[in-house]
Amino acid sequence: MKFNKNKKIGIISTIIIAIIVIIAGITIVIKNSSYSPTKDLSAKFSGYSQSGTVAFKGNIPSKIAKKIAKSVGLPSVYADQLIEDQAHITDSLSTETAAKLVSDSSLTTENANKVKKYIEYMQDISIAVSNKQSVKSLIASIKKSAFRSTGSNWDNYGTLGETNLKNGQDLNYVVYVKKDSGNPIKTSYKTFKVSGLKKPTVKNVSSTFSSLSAKFEGLSGQGVLVLKAIEKGKKQEIIHGSNDNNDNVVKGETNGSLSNGDKITLLGSKLAKLASSQQTIYKGDKNLTLNVSGLVDPKKIDLSAIKKSFLAEFTKAKIKKIDLTYSGGNKNKMFLGVKIKATGADISGFSSDSNKESSYESNSYWELKNNKIVNQEDVSWSEND
Hints:
By secondary structure, this protein is of the alpha+beta class. It has helices at residues 2-32, 60-71, 76-87, 96-102, 109-123, 135-144, 268-275, 304-313; strands at residues 42-46, 53-57, 125-130, 170-177, 188-193, 201-204, 213-217, 224-231, 234-240, 263-266, 280-283, 288-291, 318-329, 334-343, 357-362, 366-369, 372-373, 381-383.
């Protein structure tokens, strides 16, 4: 009977030990198991279809940092620093704080090695988002991209924000791990179906023509187009010049070279793109032709004030030519740059060859009112030969 009792106690002890071993084993497995970050990810779409945006919830970069810091066994005093730093950078993975921490003289060799391991694991991970590539294609693109394995920071492939989303699209979010061995993070992905975006109004581009306000400013031969249109409820300038950052809406190069009587063409397909907003999308390729008018004729400008100013400084000079350069403003109040070619003018104060022709430039812009240049005070001239 005594033997049976001891046997029973032995069996119970064995079971208890087995349970402890199993629990310890499970704890080790849980501690070292790979983490799939995207399982906790959600997305919220907003805006209008074709120009929609997404906001991801779950702060995946921060969770990755927390998991890695725990995996490498960093003391909380250091782990909290790294996790807090990453929590403020939600659109990429950062090791800047970790790199600075490595050089901290108060850090023990053991902890410095743990921080280095943290950096190694972080730099093996890239996050990418795309509404244009499948998961397989996106991962292949990431693999081809160059991983920056050194430095305190690096660029991930792609971005964590996609724009121009439209309903029905697949939006793929991929966390790719370059080396799975030892890294507590494993490659994972999540695909979201874009939905809930408002439907924009679609109009033909020709309907914008009546709301366009086109005028021309400057001197004839140097004129520019100023185009305004209704945008977000009020008329705003969308072009000043021709092709400067405006998707080549104007056919040909016209900026600063227009003359009265010229004709210019606004390309409908480009204008549609320029005029489109999130709420309203314009389509079509009908062009609009504009007749250039309203530019100031340089030949009709009274230049007496300029001549007076120049000859006051160079009394023996003979003016051969005055060139005007349009520098801004409209017909009512325009500003011009002035260059003069003259003989017999010596800016150095010494005698000069009276036949030598030199070029001079005003130090200020001259104001034009009603085809007459206003006399400027304290004007000086510099030789620019």
